[in-house]
Design a protein that fits this description.
By secondary structure, the chain is an alpha/beta fold. The chain contains 13 helices and 15 strands. Helix 5 links the parallel strand 4 and strand 5. It is globular, with a radius of gyration of 22 Å.
């Protein structure tokens, strides 16, 4: 990571202030644009780009919206087996009758996203659930084709793509497009009520927050050398949690929900972070070397403008004490934000910090599904033609998450400005990839990929 030139590049405060003004102006300008949503009986057509588990779930949520009829009409991925598995899963689900994807609208390859979006009309919806490196590429094409978007988290892993996506968000506003981001904590009704209670002073001023996601290995957290007959590029995409260019690694992909909702409770973004972590297990149980870019453990301290701290701990190890929850400590009391998982209820507030039942102030009762709530909100904004764009906030959450990851991987203190103004782009030219392209992260002669080396590379991860 390059050191920022503070004389010519935006500061954290300037960046947030400027983008906020631009978003407001764009939103107002968007109100003069004709209402844009699908015709033909008001059915909104949907294209799914990225057919893994999260994409399949997002499509099912989309088709479960009750305020308007939605229909899945096109699918795209770089792996045919992923697309076919997703298609079968959705077609055999309770929303299967809303799936109309014949073979001629199933597209495979790096240009498949264009073909799928080309099946839509202005005002329809594209779902982006591919690895994050492709988020800005797909978003730019959706804006060109005037379709609304739902994009999965994280949105970015580096400074250049964060700045690029913020600019695209302004263009989406100017085109009167609605954009949802899969940070579903913001659509958790218990967390919404908790946020209001914290704002109203129920636990005093927040001085400390804690987030924990500590469990055994999940997803493609750890990877061994690629098998014969598969390119580095396709291996890394298939194991995207293992590689920073594709996902931001396990830190960004697994921990962003806690980072996002803790920053929300604080009503701000940290100004700096320092952290640590380590690779404790370097070989698989079969004796093969792990070649991914993740640490097994992370502990990051974020610092806010007022000096308040947020500690984010992550671990992917079998046999250890599992903790998966988040908390806020205030000057008058404390809160459980997520009781279990990313959004597990109930949320609670307490007098003091022991959090015993005798000290309980409030406990949430709502059990609605935040994954469905975020889709209901997006479609309602489309139908009512009201401004709706979650991209800037999604970029900030991704950027702050990356700030902590880089702090742990580099062993350095990383500021918001360091992360925002970095010129290290992890996947330059990703918009030009083909099935035969080399990977943005080449392997050495042993089939190993660059790994973080704290203390040796300055503020760069690798």
């Amino acid at each position: 990571m390059n050191e920022p030139n503070n004389s010519s590049q935006p500061s954290r405060r300037e960046f947030i202030k400027t983008t906020g003004k631009m978003a407001a102006v764009s939103a107002l300008a968007g109100l003069t644009v004709p209402h844009v949503h699908g015709a033909e009986g008001n059915t909104i057509n949907v294209a799914l780009i990225g057919c893994g588990g999260r994409g399949t779930g997002a499509a099912e949520n989309a088709l479960s919206v009750k305020s308007a009829p939605l229909k899945l009409v096109a699918m795209a991925d770089v792996f045919e087996h992923k697309l076919n598995g997703s298609y079968r899963g959705i077609k055999n689900s309770r929303v299967g009758s809303k799936v109309d994807v014949p073979d001629e609208r199933k597209f495979i390859g790096f240009d498949a996203y264009q073909k799928a979006i080309d099946c839509l009309r202005p005002g329809d919806i594209a779902i982006f659930t591919s690895p994050l490196a492709f988020r800005w590429v797909h978003f730019a094409y959706a804006i060109e084709k005037k379709v609304h978007v739902f994009m999965e988290k994280p949105l970015t892993a580096d400074g250049p793509t964060s700045r690029r996506l913020i600019q695209l968000a302004k263009e989406a506003d100017a085109a009167n497009l609605k954009v949802g981001v899969g940070l579903m904590s913001r659509h958790s009704k218990p967390m919404q009520e908790l946020h209001k209670r914290i704002e109203d002073g129920e636990i005093g001023d927040i001085i400390l927050m804690r987030g924990y996601r500590m469990h055994g290995p999940v997803g493609s957290f750890a990877s061994t050398p690629k098998p014969d007959g598969m390119s580095d590029l396709m291996w890394q995409i298939s194991r995207f949690h293992s590689f920073l260019w594709a996902s931001g690694g396990s830190y960004s992909d697994f921990l962003i929900h806690h980072v996002d909702h803790c920053c929300w409770m604080k009503n701000g973004w940290p100004v700096k972070a320092q952290g640590l972590g380590g690779r404790h297990y370097k070989e698989s149980p079969e004796g093969q070397p792990y070649v991914d870019q993740n640490f097994d453990t992370y502990s990051v301290e974020y610092v806010f403008d007022d000096g308040a701290r947020f500690i984010m701990d992550g671990r992917c190890m079998t046999g250890c004490n599992d903790i998966y929850s988040s908390y806020a400590q205030g000057t008058k009391g404390s809160a459980i934000i997520a009781r279990h998982g990313d959004i597990g209820t109930p949320s609670m507030t307490f007098k003091g910090h022991k959090q015993g039942r005798q000290d309980l102030i409030w406990q949430s009762t709502d059990t609605s599904n935040p994954y469905q709530n975020e889709w209901d909100a997006l479609v309602e904004a489309i139908l009512s033609n009201t401004p709706y764009n979650e991209v800037e906030r999604g970029v900030y959450s991704s950027l702050v998450t990356s700030m902590g990851r880089v702090a742990a991987h580099s062993g350095q203190e990383i500021t918001f400005e360091d992360m925002l103004n970095s010129e290290h782009e992890y996947a330059p030219g990703v918009d030009k990839l083909t099935m035969d392209s080399p990977s943005p992260l080449p392997a050495d002669e042993r089939g190993h990929y660059p790994q973080p080396k704290p203390g040796l590379l300055g503020k760069r991860e690798y």
